[in-house]
Amino acid sequence: MARNVLETVQGIEIFPLISLVIFVGFFALMLGYVFTMSKSKVEELENMPLRPDSDADDIFTADPKETRN
Amino acid sequence: MATETFYYDNKIVRNFAIATAIWGVIGMLVGLIIAIKLFAPNFLGFIPELSYGRLRPLHTNAVVFAFAGNAIFLGIYYSLQRLCKSRMWSDTLSKLNFWGWQAIIVSAVFTLPFGYTQSKEYAELEWPIAIAIAVVWVIFGVNMMVTIYKRRVKHMYVAIWFYIATFITVAVLHIVNNLVLPVDMLKSYSMFAGVQDALVQWWYGHNAVAFFLTTPFLGFMYYFIPKAANRPIFSYRLSIVHFWALIFIYIWAGPHHLLYTALPGWAQSLGVVFSVMLIAPSWGGMINGLFTLRGAWDRVRQDPVLKFLVVGVTAYGMATFEGPMMSFKSVNAITHYTDYVISHVHTAALAWNGGLTFAMLYFIVPRIFGTKLYSIKMANFHFWAATMGMVIYVIPIYWGGITQSLMWKEFTADGTLMYPNFMETVTHLIPMYIARTVGGSLYIVGVLVGTFNLFKTMNSGTLIADEKAEAQVAEIVSTSRKEGNFHRWLESKPTLFTILTTVAILIGGIVEYVPTALISSNVPTIESVQPYTPLELEGRDIYIAEGCLGCHSQMIRPFRSETERYGEYSKAGEFVYDRPFLWGSKRTGPDLHRIGGKYPDSWHFMHFMEPRSTSPGSIMPAYPWFATQTTRVESIPAKIRTLQRLGVPYAEGFDQDAIEHYRNQAEEIANGLSSSGFDVEWDSQMVAMIAYMQRLGTDISAQPGDRADAVPLRTDDEADASATASHN
User: Fold this and answer.
1) Is B5's Cβ below 8 Å from some Cβ in A?
2) pTM of the prediction?
3) Between chain A's N and C termini, which has fewer beta carbons within 10 Å?
4) How many Å apart are CA A46 and CA B226, to the nearest integer?
């Protein structure tokens, strides 16, 4: 049933191909971006939540120096 | 670099914290009540507003939108300000967000138990409230996005991406799934019918779980685990892959809620493939959260916040393993419609959403009140009550779900059903229902202790309503000088992100919906399927108002065990006049799609008055008010007109004759009942319900001229003119 309807859409053959290209391309670009990030940038980003929020924060932070290198 | 002083708004965070705790207690207590009703159906008597079918949507709405919803705002309003080094953009919008959301919850409390519902799961609230939700959600989104634009730091931490994805996707899902045509202020009919309505609903329902109960909480995982453990996330690179893979794939998986139904096969297969793929980003995220604690596991022993986080993230891992497994058709065949799904949901809801929410509360409340947690011991007790409560809740009904499913499917050596009486498979589950209630009660005891602990903590400190903070304002400007145009691109990053996110989530929805819409006119039309009569329509609306679909499906899957038990399997073409669709997702009672004509009217009368009189051992609540309460006959013409506008082919002007048609059909049923010794008025709810029951699933075998009470249809000329509208 579904096939019959989809067959009537013009140029339907290209649809799956486009989908695959979008899908693979998207993940390839993303992985490329991820693995070419510089280490210093990653460190800067991952430490964002760990910056002190305010003076009031001090009483809760046991040892603010202790972060992973 | 110059520093700038500003103040975090902690008052709004405090308000959401209080709302989260209070609505959590209320929502869970409603859950406890309906859990008890499953083994003591007459619990709380015969008050319509407190019947199982009406309270179940109240429970789901309260825990999803009131408890988890307020928790989402709590976590975002706390972490976003700190990650952006900026106060929320507008205090007014923050307040509107808070009070608007509470007003919506209260309006749910005052509509769902009174039977005002759209009946689509997690989208039950009628259209005026649905509009209010959209407005408040946009207020929240604007407040959040402008805060992000005005941030004092260069980058957006990964948690913020999850918040943006939440805002965008929930807005899209909510609006599309709530497209209805109103009859009056508290009644509407879905713009979609049958198969399309089902597909839209589960695209929504599945992604409500994804983008309301998952993505914001993943954002919290990325913020609060590093905060509580005081170390950065295990792998920031993994978090980027996690984010994009998750939102890209999640949106496609909706059809796994409709396996073996009348949904076209290709859409089912697509849903399965993407559901299985989902395990990769889900587990990637879980591992990222848990590995953050490597080398710091000793802290988990001391800190209740970390305990809740660790068990929560672990439960997320279990639930996201189960999800893809249950999406395999062979597994789905034995888990769907059973309590297994309820267990699956509660593993995630109690441990993941509940756990992360209480981790946040235990983390945030002492900080914004400038004090320490009132009692670590109580928090530890809460943790164990929550964890063991969850375990005792889920294990019995995981077991019960599979047991019941296997009993449904068991055949004797002679090829007949081993348990032809559905009731046998129900009574078998009663001990499991009792055990789950014990587990749920334990969980609630934990929540009550936790709430007490939090209020004591608030009492022991003073709210730092405006928390002073400093940030180096020049950060963005100074980088831009070095990096030239890069800065401009960076500034637009929230926009870019929002656009990319929107594209990613739309692809899946469009690919799945559009072909089904194209096919719509080709859903194999079944000549004998006719629109409902006014009386049946009214009965159907009562079925919706009473929440019958919480326990009864109307979708017979093409298994021999089901066709033997219920009759011919359900076809897509049978549902073209179903607005909304009522396929249901759980069989606490039997499927009702072929109930029409199976029993005499008098059987239905007795069954509604006291289900145990016809079905000993039944756990269905009694509906004695069907015999005394009257229907709103005067609203029938407006309903017919609304349906005509949606394309249902009632003859022109039929709305004027509808009440008379209603009365004729109703009096015939009432007279029949009277001759069996049951006196009931023609305009009682009972008559409408019986008419609907007797109509269900009978069209497929009806011959032309079979129905004396068939409704007049548009002539062909009229039909041609609006042919395109008819099956949308």
Assistant:
1) no
2) 0.92
3) C
4) 9
